[in-house]
């Protein structure tokens, strides 16, 4: 059912309720289930010479669901002018031909796959010498489809197929003949331009018109056996009554009305109602103003909701309102079926260049407003096309933005946010601040924000208007300058030497010490000091950044006496009690410092976390190291307070 509903969607307006489409499906299905009878036919002849006539009876039947089968043979009754039965002509059935279920007479539309129509020809050549008053050939049968809507009691009405051979036909007349079967299915809502292929071989004038259809009985009460009268009743024949407002001249609901051009045989009109309708179409031949014969096509049409072979469609704001969220630049998505060429017109009245041939184009409109966007889709050969139009109400694009003011120092925060720009009246604001005193806030202007952590903090503003959401993100640096200020590493110098102290970061600096010491400058990034006594001096620097945030760091300057360490540049662990160990007790009196000794390739050969000033040139396992120069670092409280070279000489000369 859903598949059929989707197909019907293209034959009705997009806003047609689904339950209405469902009724259409049920109604159409009901027509198909009830239909299993003869649906039409015609009787014609062609003169082959020597008074021989090739007689053709063509019968159409509805093959959906079984029902009445074709008769294996028929008996054509032949009457003279006085309705005297001259003879019956028995004709065997020819091959069964199935008409295309999808044919509609319109190359751009296909019928739903629910109908089934077949026809069979009964053809024989018989000799009928010229006769005063001519001949009437007739075949009758019951019955018609119960579901026919334009005649009374259709299931009880039969069919009469008849044609006349002219008076004393020495000229060997050919009747008109309907050559090609008309399509059984006509499409509701589609204008007809259906040509009936009528042939007349004598060059006589042929007049085509809508006409009465005949019952399977005579006017004198003849019925001759009910279902298949045998012989068929003689003329004249009763006509079938149409249900008002239908008539033989107006048999099908259509606007403009269903009509046949009398010369070309082209059927026009636009069917506007579903159902099954029987139609009589007569082709009469005249010679010098005299009627010679009439071939009556008794035919049933099914009016249904067809499926276009090509469907133009695209995603609209009704189906996806978020299309309008991108402001004036829209990405269009085609949903056209069976189209390899498309033409978009974006509805800008002042432009002729507002078009595209891409399947899924992107277009930027010149400004807010209401635009009717048109999509025309074409088939492969361009013979078929379909057009769809949808209205787009475009508004000023939403471009969210914000700014902030206030102090961003961690110790002294007070950050105020302001949303910038124009927003729709229905806009909702959601701020997200993360690890702050107000993690989230609904409203245009949030209260002052303070973060509980330092560093870059992401701020997110979400603007919601209808189904559209717009996002702006930015970051704020919450500065804890104390965490990044660096006064430099601890330094060991000898008494009387100068040392430069350099701070990192900030724009303003102030140096000071726990003990008075002269500095080259207290307010520059780098200052120079020259200690005048041995000691460990702690220096501090206070740094201010461009935001006015302060930070403090410190470092140590260890001042050593050169005389004390002048002899501690080698050891001679050879048992003579002189320079046996590396004695650093002057700077490591408590034996709590960490010593690392490395060879000249930088490989550690000895470590001790609490050096007791007793290293005698061994590795960590107590093995003697080779004579040579080594290097050591002494760390106290995780600061390097001394570093130097030491040489092992076991056998000095």
In short:
The chain is mainly beta. 4% of the residues lie in helices and 44% in strands.
Structure notes:
With 653 residues, the chain is mainly beta. It has 5 domains: 306 residues, no CATH class; 85 residues, Sandwich (Immunoglobulin-like); 78 residues, Immunoglobulins (Immunoglobulin-like), CATH 2.60.40; 80 residues, Immunoglobulin-like (Sandwich); 82 residues, Immunoglobulin-like (Sandwich), CATH 2.60.40. The protein contains 3 helices and 43 strands. The chain starts with a helix and ends in a 5-residue tail after the last strand.
Residue share in β-strands: 35-45%
Q: Give the oligomeric state of the chains in this entry, treating copies of one chain as homo and distinct chains as hetero.
A: single chain
Number of domains: 5
- What's the overall average pLDDT, rounded? 87
Q: Shape, please?
A: rod-shaped
Q: Helical proportion?
A: under 10%
Total number of strands: 43
- Main sheet characteristics: 11 strands, mixed
Helix count? 3
Radius of gyration computed on alpha carbons: 53 Å
Spatial separation of the terminal alpha carbons: 112 Å
Kindly name the structural category.
mainly beta
Q: Note poorly predicted spans.
A: 1-36
């Amino acid at each position: 059912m859903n598949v059929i509903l989707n197909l019907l969607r293209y034959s009705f307006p997009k806003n047609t309720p689904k339950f209405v489409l469902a009724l259409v499906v049920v109604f159409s299905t009901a027509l198909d289930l009830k239909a299993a009878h003869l649906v039409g036919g015609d009787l014609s002849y062609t003169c082959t010479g020597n008074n021989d006539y090739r007689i053709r009876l063509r019968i159409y039947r509805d093959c959906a669901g079984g029902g009445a089968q074709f008769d294996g043979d028929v008996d054509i009754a032949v009457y003279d002018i006085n309705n005297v039965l001259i003879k019956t002509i028995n004709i065997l059935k020819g091959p069964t031909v199935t008409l295309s279920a999808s044919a509609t007479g319109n190359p751009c539309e296909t019928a739903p796959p629910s109908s089934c129509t077949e026809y069979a020809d009964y053809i024989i050549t018989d000799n009928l010498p010229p006769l005063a008053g001519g001949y009437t050939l007739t075949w009758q049968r019951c019955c018609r489809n119960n579901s026919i809507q334009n005649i009374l009691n259709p299931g009880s009405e039969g069919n009469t197929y008849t044609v006349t051979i002219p008076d004393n036909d020495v000229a060997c007349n050919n009747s008109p003949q309907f050559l090609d079967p008309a399509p059984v299915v006509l499409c509701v809502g589609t204008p007809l331009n259906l040509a009936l292929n009528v042939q007349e071989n004598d060059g006589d004038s042929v007049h085509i018109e809508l006409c009465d259809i005949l019952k399977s009985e005579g006017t004198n009460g003849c019925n001759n056996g009910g279902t298949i009268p045998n012989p068929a009743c003689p003329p004249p024949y009763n006509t079938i009554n149409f249900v008002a407002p239908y008539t033989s001249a107006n048999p099908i609901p259509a606007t403009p009305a269903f009509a046949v051009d009398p010369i070309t045989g082209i059927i026009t009109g636009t069917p506007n109602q579903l159902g099954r309708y029987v139609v009589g179409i007569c082709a009469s031949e005249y010679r010098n103003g005299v009627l010679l014969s009439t071939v009556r096509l008794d035919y049933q049409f099914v009016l249904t909701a067809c499926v276009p072979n090509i469907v133009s469609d695209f995603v609209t704001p009704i189906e996806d309102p978020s299309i309008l969220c991108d402001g004036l630049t829209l990405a269009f998505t085609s949903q056209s079926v069976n189209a390899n060429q498309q033409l978009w017109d974006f509805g800008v009245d002042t432009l002729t260049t507002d078009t595209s041939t891409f399947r899924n184009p992107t277009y930027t409109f010149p400004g807010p407003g209401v635009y009717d966007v048109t999509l025309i889709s074409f088939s492969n050969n361009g013979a078929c096309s379909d057009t769809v139009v949808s209205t787009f109400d475009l508004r000023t694009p939403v471009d969210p933005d914000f700014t902030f003011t206030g102090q961003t120092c961690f110790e002294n925060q007070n950050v105020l946010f302001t949303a910038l720009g124009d927003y729709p009246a229905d806009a909702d604001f959601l701020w997200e601040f993360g690890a702050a005193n107000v993690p989230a806030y609904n409203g245009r202007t949030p209260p002052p924000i303070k973060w509980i952590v330092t560093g870059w903090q992401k701020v997110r503003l979400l603007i919601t208007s209808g189904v559209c959401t717009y996002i702006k993100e930015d970051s704020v640096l919450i500065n804890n300058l104390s965490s990044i200020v660096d006064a430099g590493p601890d330094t060991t110098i000898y008494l009387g030497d100068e040392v430069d102290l350099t701070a990192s970061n900030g724009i303003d600096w102030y140096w000071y010490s726990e003990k008075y010491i002269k500095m080259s400058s207290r307010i520059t990034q780098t200052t120079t000091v020259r200690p005048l006594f041995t000691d460990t001096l702690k220096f501090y620097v206070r740094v201010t950044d461009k935001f006015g945030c302060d930070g403090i760091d410190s470092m140590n300057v260890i001042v050593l006496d050169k005389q004390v360490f002048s002899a501690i540049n080698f050891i001679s662990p050879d048992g003579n009690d002189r320079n046996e160990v590396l004695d650093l007790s002057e700077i490591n009196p408590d034996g709590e410092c960490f010593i690392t000794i490395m060879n000249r390739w930088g490989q550690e050969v000895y470590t001790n976390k609490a050096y007791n000033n007793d290293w005698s040139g061994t590795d960590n396992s107590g093995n003697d190291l080779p004579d040579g120069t080594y290097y050591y670092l002494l760390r106290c409280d995780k600061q390097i307070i001394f570093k130097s070279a030491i040489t092992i000489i076991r056998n000095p000369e």
